[in-house]
Amino acid sequence: MSLEEERFRNGIARVEEALGYRFSDPMLPIQALTHRSFANENGVCGPDNERLEFLGDAVVELVVSERLFRMYPDMSEGELTRARASVVRTSSLALAAQRLDLGNVVRLGRGEEATGGRTKESVLANTVEALIGAVFFDAGFARAEAVTLNLLECRFAAPEELIQPAPKNRLQELLQARRQPGPRYVAVETNGPEHALHFAVDVFSGNRLLARGEGTSKKEATTAAAQAALVVLERERHTDKGSK
After folding, report:
1. For a designed S-S bond to 87, which of 155, 156, 211, 231 qualifies (C-beta 3.0 to 4.6 A apart)?
2. Which stretches of 107-198 are DSSP H helices?
3. Is-contact 30 11, C-beta < 8 A?
4. What amino acid positions are annotated as catalytic residues?
5. In 10 A of CB 147, how many CB atoms?
6. Do the Cβ atoms of 124 and 98 come closer than 8 Å?
């Protein structure tokens, strides 16, 4: 066994300890922690983690939906939908990945590694979902549910925090309230290799540039731009108050 392989196996053991779950099928955590870029570059015999990610995504959605349904019996369907989106968003799953130290364990190709893949929220979030999918496949729903809730419990915040509209909707509403032109999003940059694209999006109100957002997808960059614009407008509001 090479030194690199030994480190990977030790990393899997640390992840299992942090999860509180030991896989009965030792191939499942290997698959869950193998990014497509590594498999493509190294000709790995066996699948990468994308199929397990697909499975884990469905498990997470169901677990979080049921927990919210039970916790908040007065929430409407729309509020539950927004609350679930808040809990399972990429940044939340990426934080869970950091708790498991997945950035130092996941196997990445050289190209993905060179573009900061170990700290990319999308890579980390997808790896968490793959691990949850692996637990489900290995031991069934009950164990996958326990692992999911343990990783995301801190995200089940107060109802008023969970049902906040998404940044794009909040920005739209704020600009309308101020009688300013609605937000207009412009993709200004796309670079990087196909498996690790990086996007930049500017958001305008009329001809005024409010902010720029970046991410590993156009959607992520657009959301980041809206969030940044909200910060700018909130800062301006406080400045205006202080000058009166």
Report:
1. 155
2. 110-114, 121-139, 141-152, 159-162, 167-177
3. no
4. 57, 129
5. 23
6. yes
